[in-house]
Amino acid sequence: MQKEYLTDMLNSSQTLLDLINDILNYSRLELDKTTLNTMPFFLLDIYQSIISMFKHQVQRKKMALVCHISPECGIELMGDPIRVKQILVNLVGNAVKFTNNGQIWIQTESLHETSDKIYISISVTDTGIGIRESDQKRIFQAFTQTETSANRKYTGAGLGLAICEKLVQVMDGKLFVTSMPSKGSTFSITLPFAVSGSQKGHKIPDTYSRVLIIEDDPINARFAQSILKDADLTVDVIEDGHQALSYIQENAYDMVFMDIQLPEIDGYELTQTIRKHGYATLPIIALTACVMKGDREKCLSAGMNDYLPKPFEPDDILQMYQKWKASVKPMETHEV
């Protein structure tokens, strides 16, 4: 009992400390006293830190947290990594709080480049409760919650998004939201960064080259395997979904292509099992003949990243690989 009291006290103390920090941060922003500390950094490092920060919450909800960064955004940037991380921690934290199933994506792409800057878009998308259109402007006001009743389900001071908006403005960027109730939300920021002179033009090293195919039909398996092998990838093929987890634990796969209709355990359940064991960022692509309305959404809700209907052409699976190969490397963590 004493241990439970102590845990409650620690949680309450941390909540109070977070609230005080939010108020101080917002006050500085309101008074224009926030300064940016420019230094070289990699977005990939920030993403790995965020994944580590939220992985246990994501695992408890049996969801997936997926990061995708396009190669042109993998260069060394010049900016304030602490402020960038602060923005993303708020956005991802909200996504985790307001999502109870499905997955959360952090997607990054380059919008355009000038002689001395690169303009990058970072979006955080969830499959959570969504936001009414009438609330989508109001949520950026300080101390504002979409729920106003005394017995509201979700707690918080209502400062996170207000701080995000102020920080983005200080960094000469923009923040957007699109959302539908019961469908989910996407918060997108666009930020300009200078490019480190020593790293300009150096992209993310293409170091991942191992793929797992889970397919019980030998003809389909050989077809996909031959295409990917011709692209100089190392490809493992298994037909038993029960073997998948041990293969993933023993090999550093950068992607999994998975049939949905597997014997004994289907692709939906298998994906949830993989996510539950800590592989929140491993791209899992559905290969399926299920092409009815709602099948794609069902795959995504199960924790898969994308959907490739059968039959497919060689270019289809290669383009899917190219789309997801720059994702953050899977965290080598397991359920505790």
UniProtKB/TrEMBL annotation:
Tell me its EC number(s), please: 2.7.13.3
Q: Which Pfam families match?
A: HATPase_c, Response_reg
Under Gene3D superfamilies, the record lists: 3.40.50.2300, Histidine kinase-like ATPase, C-terminal domain
According to the entry, every stretch annotated as the Histidine kinase domain falls at 1-195
SMART domains per the UniProt record, alphabetical:
HATPase_c, REC
Residues that bear 4-aspartylphosphate: 259
What residue stretches are annotated with the Response regulatory domain?
Answer: 210-325
Coiled-coil residue windows: none
Report a single Gene Ontology molecular function.
phosphorelay sensor kinase activity
Query: Can you state which reaction this protein catalyses?
Result: ATP + protein L-histidine = ADP + protein N-phospho-L-histidine
Keywords linked to the UniProt accession: Kinase, Phosphoprotein, Transferase, Two-component regulatory system
The name this protein carries in UniProt is: histidine kinase
> What's the source species for this entry?
Candidatus Magnetoglobus multicellularis str. Araruama
